[in-house]
Write a structure and sequence with these properties.
alpha/beta; binds S-adenosylmethionine; Rossmann fold; about 25% helix; seven-stranded mixed β-sheet; about 190 residues
């Protein structure tokens, strides 16, 4: 990630309104039955914190990482508004390693950095749950996204095939196209 990219995200997030909203992603909210254990959670590329705050409201001790400090400030503001606590960490996830066996829950929504797949497997504790959802190759029909920013068909299934797959879907409904996974480290 170049300084220019960080600037791009800071500019997008600049302003009082929440560009991605304050409610958690539907895939997370509608599968809250997998979020009953509590413990430590990591929200990768957490943005303005909608998913971090939801996990915190369910009792998780959440660490929210993102490259945009403006986004993380808004995440903290949202946490205050909802009376929950999160820890924000300004991090360039293109060049980061994650601690081994650290998290009971990892969330990654709308972000793709393939080098992190191995780090995610590493940082999950045994029994830990991964929620991953991001744009798929079908999204190229509806956007000017680059190919390297989107998942191939079945890519999440292959990337996490050593985890137990609990739920998986690929959605292609114009103007949206994405893949979603819930998996558990064995
Ligand atoms: C589309 S937003 C998704 C935010 C959040 N996960 C959500 O769904 O609301 C992508 C996020 O990735 C962050 N990001 C982009 N490149 C990054 C990097 N190299 N390291 C950490 N975060 C990065 C951006 O700042 C942005 O918040």
């Amino acid at each position: 990630m170049s300084f220019k990219d960080k600037e791009k995200w800071d500019t997008k997030y600049d302003g009082d309104s929440y560009i991605t909203g304050k409610e958690p992603c539907e895939w997370l909210k509608s599968h809250a039955e997998f979020l009953i254990k509590g413990g430590k959670a990591l929200d990768i590329a957490a943005g303005e914190g909608r998913n971090s705050v939801f996990a915190a409201s369910l009792g998780y001790e959440v660490v929210s990482m993102d490259i945009s400090e403006i986004a993380l400030k808004k995440a903290q503001r949202l946490a205050n508004e909802k009376n929950v606590t999160i820890t924000t960490l300004s991090t360039d996830l293109d060049n980061s390693s994650l601690p081994e066996n650290e998290y009971d829950l990892v969330l990654c929504f709308n972000f793709l950095e393939r080098k992190l797949f191995q780090e995610i497997r590493k940082t999950l504790k045994s029994g830990g749950i991964l929620f991953y959802e991001t744009f798929s190759v079908d999204y190229l029909k509806y956007s000017s996204f680059k190919k390297e920013w989107v998942l191939e068909h079945n890519e999440l299934l292959k990337a996490f095939n050593d985890l137990r797959i609990l739920r998986y879907q690929e959605v292609d409904e114009e103007p949206k196209a994405f893949a979603s996974l819930i998996a558990q480290k064995l």
